[in-house]
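User: I'm preparing a small set of examples for a lab meeting where we compare how different chains pack in three dimensions. I only have the primary sequence for this one, and I'd like the structure in token form so I can line it up with the others. Please keep the answer compact; I'll paste it straight into my notes.
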Amino acid sequence: MPELSHRRRMLVLAICCMSLLIVSLDVTALNVALPSMQHELHASTAGLQWTIDAYTLVLASLLMLAGSTADRIGRRRVFLSGLVIFVIGSLLCSLAPNLDSLVAFRMVQAVGGSMLNPVAMSIITNTFTDPRERARAIGVWGAVVGISMAAGPLIGGLLVESVGWRSIFWVNLPVGLAALLLTLRYVPESRAPRARRPDPVGQLLVITLFGSLTYAIIEAPTAGLTTVLPFAVLALAALVGLLRYEPRRAEPLIDLRFFRSVPFSGATVIAISAFASLGGFLFLSTLYLQNVRGLDALHAGLWMLPMAVPMFLCAPLSGRLVGTRGPRLSLLVAGLAMTASGVLFAAFEAETSNVTLFVGYVMFGVGFGFVNAPITNTAVSGMPRAQAGVAAAVASTSRQLGQTLGVAVIGAVLASGVGSSSYRDTFVSAARPGWWILTACGLAVLVFGALTSGPWARRSAERTAEQLAATDVREAARVVA
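Assistant: Understood. Below is the structure token output for the 481-residue chain.
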């Protein structure tokens, strides 16, 4: 691909950031709309969980497939397809007549979303060849996530109160169409020099594992053991199948050798823990502010700003710390702040006082603001350049899986505690076990951040990188021969 002008590169970056913005805003703004959707669609707690988890579950299942497909048939082509599917899915969501339709249309949205973020990152990496320019471009990309976190609850609240919850999906239409037209005009096509081969069996096993596990967790409080147990067994069988099948492939969907690297394994656990905490935190906060305190969607969105603003401010600071001092300090700050926030809610019922609620939100925002930047850095630490993209894709999948499990587990715990009572009467006591789970997630970030960012962990990453590089050389020689 010929070198693009500076102006053209900036346009490509802006287009990629537009796709990230609509995908990220869609998730954060939707949380504020949950009580309105619950009222209009007569949804249970499990129904609300599925409106979020149907999206993140499909996204987590298809991220690596979308990335490898884009490398093989063309990144621009897959990115365009993702925009079209995402816009169509958003339109269908806005017209959903009932909860089942909304959940199905959210899955359509997620198919498109899976083709946007990882492929956009590949486009950015391919467009910005200078290391310094690329670092700045990825910094802008990360800042967009912070913007969406800060603006999502407020925009969602404004839209829900002025127009209705369906308008949240309408926002995606003009932005998505503009990104589509600009992509056709300005984004060049690119492919990987040597694309990975498809792994349909591995992909099917991943979908089975994620889907059956999530279903078992969400439906456990209401469906009963006899209904849930077969799905739990199916999840276990899929996991065993992955562990036995993937090591036998030359180019597996998930290269299990990556987990020999302590930083990579740590980054996976940290990503799942941090994003499980985020999903559960937003779920509990939204339901509490609107269903217990009786706030409208706009004021609930305003109450979330003490959490969202520190996320926005701390994310670039964490990025600079990772660049200058490595990931350890950012992970320790993140783990401490998220753990302290969880303890404040679990042990001291922070939601019952405005002051402690504000402090708890600020502390969680600081913690999550610091955690995102070091995850990808830690995941790719020491990996051969040819494997860095795959390692980053696994980290992205871990984020989505974590958010899916956070909403599933915390929602199930809340549903069990509330039972047939009203939220207003039992929410605080029913939510307490959920807050302790979120505290444990913060503690996992702290402990694994400390354990997997030291000298011995780096040495394990170097050994893994040497083994992977040697295997790749032998495989390339075999292909040539």
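A couple of notes for your slides: Residues 6-41 form the longest helix (36 residues). Residues 202 and 245 are 8 Å apart (CA to CA).

User: Perfect, thanks.
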